[in-house]
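[stage:ingest] chain + small molecule (6-O-phosphono-alpha-D-fructofuranose)
[stage:ingest] validated
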Amino acid sequence: MLISTKFMTLERFIRQQEEKFPQATGEFTNVLFALTLAAKLVWREVSKAGLVNILGTTEQINVSGDILKKLDLFADETIRRTMFYTGHLCAMASEESNGLIEMPTKYNSGKYVLIYDPLDGSSNIDANITIGTIFSIFKRVTSFGQGNLDDCLQPGYKQVAAGYIIYGTSTMFVYTTGQGVHGFTLDPSVGEFLLSNENIKIPPKGKFYSINEGNYNLWDPKFQKYINYLKEIDKQSGRPYSLRYIGTMVGDIHRTLLYGGIFMYPADKKNPNGKLRLMYECNPMSYIVEQAGGRAINGEKRILEIQPDSLHQQTPIFIGSTEEVTLCEKFLKEEN
Ligand code: P6P
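[stage:predict] done
[stage:export] tokens:
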């Protein structure tokens, strides 16, 4: 069978993107290549988790107190091992670890910083519901040697790349380097991510809202008013909206990216700064959604403009179609 000319692999696409930058040294490309390998290694375990005794929990508790699933641990260690030896990273931080990851001395003075959530939505693992890996890449700000917190705690608009791998009905690698958002679907028969969604653009409007309504009584009254507005019956304005929520940020935002709508995790009485982490979840997803033509705010400003002061800080997030985020923002900023 002739290989279709559409056979655009992720590696070839990354290489083509690099050719647009004559001054490129290839280091950044190698970091992305290593990430695609890590994605395939994690996919291999996630896709057969039900078959081997890898489900269930470990006795370890991670920084956010979630029960650490065996797959979480596997994904975290796989990404570390694959990324350690690129030689192009000076610092790495995982959502599953307190501080910076200890890197091998000979390989810890590269140009880039990798911040990642190895397995987002892991509470869904045993129910075979979509989970994902999220990554964010910055250029270092210190001049040489091992990287430090200063290299990590940069505002999101300084990211040089962000992406996620979604392990769902099929496995996709979706990423941006500031040249649009592109999606690649894994063809397990050849073990390659093939271009399936070039230059993804989020619809300006959407009929889905995505949120954990169980927290309704914990929300600010202005936000409750906005959610009630979405549920009113008014054909002319396309209301009521439909609620879609799977409890995995990667899955909920991937659907929002493709179908339009809005995903939200606001502050509430239980989580006064919101639940989701700025560095590991909100920054990368916001960079992607903005690159696809959408918006991402914390209620006051762009997520990407928040100056982080700690690796695990949380932020409220309202992200998705421009018109939907702008409507939500109007309610949040309403005078009392
Ligand atoms: P809740 C998963 O644990 C996660 O970090 C995100 O992937 C998801 O959007 C959110 O938390 C779900 O939180 O409070 O609705 O269970």
